Amino acid sequence: MSMTDVPSYFADLTGMNETTAQLILSVVVICIVLFPYLILAKDKPSPLIAVILIFLAEAITLGLGWSPFWIMIMIMALTASVLALLGAKAVTGGG
Amino acid sequence: MASEQYGFVFAVIFLILFAGLTAMIPVDLQGQGGIADIVTPVDPALVSDFSASEEFVKSDFDGILSLYYVYDGDPDDMGYMFECVFDLVDTFVVGSRVYWLGLWLGAYDWVSWKGPNGTVYDITGVSFTDIDNDMTDGVVRYDLTHSGSGQDAGGFIFYYNTTTYTDASDAWDSSELYLLHGIGMTPNTNIISLLVGILFLQLPDVPVGINLLLATPPWASVGYIIWFLVKESLPFF
Prior knowledge:
The structure holds two protein chains of two kinds. In chain A, 77% of the residues lie in helices and 0% in strands. Chain A is mainly alpha-helical. Chain A is elongated, with a radius of gyration of 16 Å. The longest helix of chain B is centred in the last third of the chain and has 26 residues, at 208-233. Chain B has five helices and ten strands. The chains are: A mainly alpha, B alpha+beta.
């Protein structure tokens, strides 16, 4: 069994469809990467670092074939939004 | 005023970053390719890199031994005509309909076939003899190119069970010579086609609702930028 087949086995095990299994496992991987940072930086977590971590975790799940391609585009949009907020704040002084 | 400028700067930066980040997505991450529904085991390497594929046997063809199929989500909205005229000239021919101002007037852009050994067969197609000569262990893959437009037309795989049938013609007669046509072999590597796919709801293998969700932020940014520039250029606002 390869890592790519894990959602298929998980789907068989739980009786859910494969797409749902892929999304659930992708969320688990993202949480594993993201939660330690959120716990460590509980006083003042940086949204930018959080987005970068989500991006990295999503790249892993996409590479494994667990999550669909459009999720990566959504994360790109999220990353661009966070960076644009920071950039616009720096340029205009915060609106 | 300040908040409008803030919105304008945000929209400009967002568009630049979104386009830049999307363009930087590695090709290998742009989908896993279609997984073909295969009856007989085939080397997976042969059917990889397809974003969509269709499989046929003889019984799928109609009375005139031709078959027309349109791929869902085909980025070029290109229909493919599969025509088998083996009774006449003993060849498989593939072409796509040529549209003129949205109308199909009966013209086809037929494809040429490039075999695994580099042999190129013209639009008259491949015969059972060609298929048997090019096959290795009952499988052969051809790369197709439209002869008119020069565009990639995907890949075409013939395969059958060599323990049951002696040659491709024998397998075809029993509806067990499988024809698999796949498109989207060339990953989406340029930013323009990817962004156009996002903006105009044409991303392959992505539900329209999701595509709409992805398209909304860039369109909203473009709209805001246009509104802001028009407003700033008009003196009476």
